[in-house]
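Workshop exercise sheet. Pairs work together: one partner reads the sequence aloud, the other fills in the structure field after running the prediction. Swap roles for the next sheet.
Pair: D.N. / O.F.
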Amino acid sequence: MRRRAIGLSMVAVSCLTAMAVSAPAAAAQPSLPPAVDTADPMLPPALAEAVARDLGLNPQQFLDRAAAARRLAEFTATVGSAGVTGAWLDGDGRPVIAAADGPEHTAVSDAASAAGFVVDAPAPELPPAVGVAIQPLLELLPFDPSPIAGPIRATSYLGGDSFLAGTPAGLGLRCSLGFNAVDSTRGAVNITAGHCDPGTAATGSAATTGAYPMYGSLVGSKFGSFYRTSQSHNDYALIDIEDAHVGEFESNAVRVPGREPLHITGTVDPIVGAPVCKAGSTSGFSCGTILSTGRSIGMGEAVLDRNFSTSICGLRGDSGGPVVSGTLAVGIASASNVGDQPSCEIATLVSMLQGQRPELFATPINDVLAENPGLTIRTS
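Structure field:
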């Protein structure tokens, strides 16, 4: 069944009449917050407390679940859809594989068991929606990332930062920056949500949508232009960064307000039950779990059929923000069933009274990369 969701873009009031790119801008973005004390070898103390409070897990359990989800994603990618019909973490965090019927069933089941997975278990019982404002740091997990990250400057733009997508005609939408990336033919780019582009028909032309930083209600000078927008199957857009601003988009970091930025080390496919977090310019950094994959939702006239859903609250303005699992990129925030609510506290209460929960829908980052050969996110 296809669900209808609310896009998370926010119409910028200053752009309903004209594009105010000459409005006074702040001299620079605020300096990055000081580093967090990392006395705990796995998670900083404040974040370990948040994990216990919001997820009911200790740091090692949190690390174990993120690692298990990554191993599941790697296994299913290797075996393929013909061998595996489902993969998830159950309510106890155990990795589960449902092997497909057929001649390879025994071989796949044996391989899954040898890898330490539960085979053909019942459907997962997911934990309730988690709280907000934790920063999972999984630096101890083994990754083999591509070394294309750059330094974080005081003026760097990070995933989750606010920007305005505006057209020469004066239309504008407030959204969030996604993952900084590199296009083999264009250089520095940023990956955000496709529905953030109000001038889709003109993308890539002289009338294409421009991207402008936002500091509160102030709009700064243009830093890039949209050169590809997709609202079919997947919801994403690519912003070509202007030469003068390339240095500000070389970081691989995601903004975590009040905490040290989270550095991205690679990508992973969404796995049901995996812990995930999102960064958004409206509701900040908040976490939950993946509820489902391959979701079909309607957003305006568009039909998105490759989304995954999470138990995270997302509000207008969060569109385009990064969704991560530990330090791995999972997706781009696209839509929400509570996007029109004024706050996540009210959204949680309203949805609870309706017998629901907040859900954030996102486009898998690996789908975006697969559709754009030569595109690679910045990692460390």
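Discussion prompt: The two ends are 39 Å apart (CA to CA). What would you look at next?
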